[in-house]
Design a protein that fits this description.
Elements: H1 5-20, E1 24-26, H2 44-49, E2 65-72, E3 81-86, H3 88-91, H4 107-114, E4 116-123, E5 131-147, H5 149-187, H6 192-208, H7 210-216, E6 219-221, E7 226-242, E8 250-264, E9 267-278, E10 286-296, E11 300-311, E12 321-333, E13 336-344, E14 355-365
Antiparallel strand pairs: 1-6, 2-3, 2-14, 3-4, 4-5, 5-7, 7-8, 8-9, 9-10, 10-11, 11-12, 12-13, 13-14
Helix pairs in contact: 1-5, 5-6
Length: 371
């Protein structure tokens, strides 16, 4: 079958419209996604450094790219700790992945689609002895639940809406002059260059028209939400740089951990089991265990976490201690969150400082994921 110039144009323009509307669904067809489904949790590189807003991360399909900034409240408003995270799978276009292919995932699919790599830096020394620490982290979900029925209904409605909008678009561009323009091109009244320029003008007029906007006004943003059982595994590695000198770098710590969780509705219950291995003296090898309860809405999340730290060797310098922290997260724009943590930290070697008072910002950047 031969595709006409007009058909090719309509396909290309409608494809662009579909991509722009790719994260939308019919209003009222689904409940709002929780904050947990919208943002990437704290980077494991932050966790390895020990300056994380939360020591028990909520599992989630990661953003393409995420940036995080954390600062102790008493240090002022300029953050000194930074993290950058990316997801290799979502950075590459997935032209053959539809939402129906992502309702459930086997282990290989889950690992590939949730693998993320991160790097973070923090000022971990004191005024008289400056020390910059660098950490790299990796995490992935072995199991990542399933897409909620509400999300499946929403995405099904999206397909129907796009089909209806396509019919509206085809009718409107024809009425706006494309049908007549095709006749003029066939009769030789316009050149190919004039035809191409005019059809782009017609498309722009239709997309900006009140009628087409009204046809699309029933839509709202939606995020694909998953629920059920999740099992995340992660690791982090830390190097120290005395006085900010590359030549003085020294490997200090490694950690591995597992985070099982269960997500149901607006609630998320998360546990953690983490092993930390210090390679420098005094040794601080330790085992962490604990949990976190999270309540999320589309705009905010509130949680409490408790993490117990125990030394591996009783002769080591660290003491048995715990972390008990309250965490609040608020969505200030579609891709920006503010995070505040306040509570009691674990007892750290060489200091009596156990107060946590942190303020952070997180930015996520993602493109449409399903064709």
């Amino acid at each position: 079958m031969t595709i006409t110039r007009r058909q090719a144009f309509l396909v290309s323009v409608f494809a662009a419209v579909a991509m722009l509307a790719g994260t939308r669904t019919v209003l009222g067809q689904t409940e709002a996604p929780t904050l947990a489904s919208l943002r990437t949790p704290p980077s494991p590189a932050f966790t390895a450094l020990g300056i994380e807003p939360s020591a028990v991360e909520r599992p989630a399909t990661p953003s393409d790219v995420a940036l995080s900034f954390v600062s102790k409240l008493r240090q002022g408003t300029v953050p000194k700790d930074y993290a950058f995270e990316l997801s290799p799978y979502w950075l590459v276009s997935q032209p053959n992945l539809s939402w129906s292919d992502d309702v459930t995932r086997n282990v290989a699919e889950s690992v590939a689609r949730t693998l993320s790599l991160s790097v973070a830096t923090a000022e971990t020394g004191v005024t008289g002895s400056p020390l910059t620490s660098l950490a790299v982290g990796v995490r992935t979900l072995v199991t990542s639940g399933h897409m909620t029925p509400a999300t499946q209904r929403a995405l099904g409605a999206l397909e129907a809406m796009l089909s209806q909008s396509g019919d509206v678009f085809l009718r409107m561009v024809g009425e706006a002059g494309l049908d007549e323009l095709d006749k003029r091109l066939a009769s030789g009244d316009v050149t190919t260059a004039e035809y191409e320029a005019r059809k782009q003008e017609i498309a722009a007029l239709v997309l900006e028209s009140d009628e087409y906007r009204e046809a699309m006004s029933r839509a709202e943003d939606v995020a694909a939400k998953r629920e059920g059982f999740f099992l995340e595994v992660a690791a982090g590695f830390v190097w120290d740089f005395a006085a900010g000198s590359w030549e003085s770098r020294a490997f200090r710590k490694r950690g591995v951990w597992a985070t099982p969780s269960y997500d149901f509705g607006a609630w998320n219950l998360v546990g953690v089991l983490r092993y930390l291995d210090e390679t420098t003296a005094p040794s601080e090898d330790a085992l962490d265990w604990g949990g976190r309860a999270v309540y999320s809405t589309a705009d905010y999340a509130l949680s409490l976490e408790f993490v117990r730290r125990s030394p591996i060797d009783p002769t080591e310098t660290i003491r048995r201690s715990h972390r008990f922290v309250g965490i609040g997260e608020y969505r200030i724009s579609p891709a920006t969150w503010i995070i505040a943590s306040f509570g009691k930290d674990r007892q750290k070697t060489g200091t009596r400082e156990t107060l946590i008072a942190q303020l952070g910002l997180a930015f996520s950047f993602s493109k449409d994921r399903y064709f």
